[in-house]
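Q: Could you fold this chain for me?
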Amino acid sequence: MSVNYGSKRIVSGAHYGLRDWLAQRVTGVLMALFTLIVLAQLIFFKGPIGYEKWAGIFAAQWMKFLTFSVVIALIYHVWVGIRDVLMDYVKPVAIRLPLQVFAIVWLVGCAGWTLQALWRL
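A: Sure. Below is the predicted structure, expressed as C-alpha cells.
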C-alpha cells in the first residue's frame, strides 16, 4: 500500500519563464556594452560632436552589423516585455491577440527601418 503525502503538483502554462528572464538579462547586457562602445568612440574622438562624427562612427561595416545585431536584441527584449505585460494584464484573448499582432508588426517595421537607415536601402 502506497502512501501519498501531499498533492501531486500540476504545472500549467507556457514554461518559458527562465528562458525569457535570461533573454532579458543577456539582451540588456548586450545593449549596455554597445552603449559603452559608442560612448567610448564619442569620448576619445577629438573635435566637435556633429553629423560627421556620428556618420563616421557608423560608417564601418562591422559597426553597422553590430548596431543591427543590437537592434535585433532590443526588439526581442521589447517583445518579451510587451508579451508578458499583455499576458498578465489583458485577459480577454479577443483584445490581447490583436495587440500582440500589432506589436509584432510594429517591431518588424522597426527592424526594416533600421536596415534602411544603416545601409541606405
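A (continued): The domain at 17-119 is CATH 1.20.1300.10 (3 helical TM bundles of succinate and fumarate reductases).
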